[in-house]
Design brief:
Number of strands: 7
Radius of gyration: 17 Å
Number of domains: 1
CATH topology: Rossmann fold
Helix content: 40-55%
Shape: globular
Largest sheet: 7 strands, parallel
Order of helices and strands: EHEHEHEHEHHEHHHE
Number of helices: 9
CATH class: Alpha Beta
Bound molecules: 1,4-dihydronicotinamide adenine dinucleotide
Strand order of the largest sheet: 3-2-1-4-5-6-7
Strand content: 15-25%
Length: about 240
């Protein structure tokens, strides 16, 4: 489905980003994994079933993101798919959350996503279009206790993506959003068992999702299967908060 196309995935060294890279590679795409952890990105790139490289990139830096886009075009000749996936959590109730924890999370998710969307769209609009997929979260739809930073950033990604989608739709660039629910990765496995149990009770399908189940939706958005879709938000939650 992606033969001849090149995808840049931020935060692609592990978790959902790596699952997306894996399914894109299986579908014929060249892959660039851009991650704060360069060693892990390179190792992960080596595990993929397609030409792939890992580069160091801090998504909070526009210069780093622009350099990752330039490196992608330099290595593979194009950038057709951009996945803004890099993320962190710094959970705390508002009483305990520091200003720095708020700024860090907003910077990585919201500014990082803006940096990536802007840089990718700038290239794609000049080269026949492309697909941008931004990772939000169901936390951005409903708001979670202890995540005033993360919920704000993830809701912001929806607004950012819709604004961007309207700006570049006529240039063949599509921008869509995925809102995963509880997905089993390093980020969520760090949660205490009590938090897992509470979340589980809210999921109609009665199980956590696998990263591959987010990746298949990213594949749909990246491919021509979704050629008439832009500015949309897909919930991948097992029915939670439908
Ligand atoms: P993860 O913690 O397994 O992986 C995140 C990756 O992002 C890591 O490789 C990390 O090195 C990288 N990263 C962190 N800060 C970075 C920066 N400044 N620049 C570049 N790379 C950076 O996380 P996971 O679970 O795979 O999450 C991926 C995305 O999906 C995130 O945006 C997360 O918010 C979102 N998400 C995850 C859910 C889950 O249940 N796991 C649910 C909803 C959304």
């Amino acid at each position: 489905m992606l033969t001849g196309r090149t995808a840049l995935i931020t935060g692609g060294a592990q978790g959902i980003g790596l699952a997306i890279a894996t399914v894109f590679a299986e579908n014929g795409a060249n892959i660039v994994l851009a991650d704060l952890n360069e060693d892990a990105a390179r190792t992960a790139a080596g595990s993929l079933a397609a030409p792939a490289v890992g580069v160091r990139c801090d998504v909070t830096s526009a210069a780093d993101v622009n350099a990752a886009v330039a490196a992608t075009v330099d290595r593979f000749g194009s950038l057709d798919i951009m996945v803004n996936n890099a993320g962190i959590t710094r959970d705390a109730t508002m009483r305990k959350m520091t200003e720095d924890q708020f700024d860090q999370v907003v910077s990585v998710h919201l500014k990082g996503c803006w940096n990536g969307t802007r840089a990718a769209a700038a290239h794609m609009r000049e080269h026949g279009g492309g697909s941008i997929v931004n990772l939000s979260s169901i936390s951005g739809k409903v708001g979670f206790v202890g995540q005033s930073n993360y919920s704000a950033a993830k809701a912001g990604i929806v607004g950012l993506s819709k604004a961007a989608a309207k700006e570049v739709a006529h240039l063949g660039v599509r921008v869509n959003v995925i809102q995963p629910g509880l997905i089993r990765t390093a980020m969520t496995e760090a949660m205490p068992q009590k938090a897992w149990d509470q979340k589980m009770a809210e999921i109609p399908m009665q199980r956590a999702g696998d990263p591959s189940e987010v990746a298949s939706v990213a594949l749909f958005y990246a491919s021509d299967l979704s050629s008439y879709m832009t500015g949309t938000v897909s919930e991948v939650t097992g029915g939670r908060y439908m």
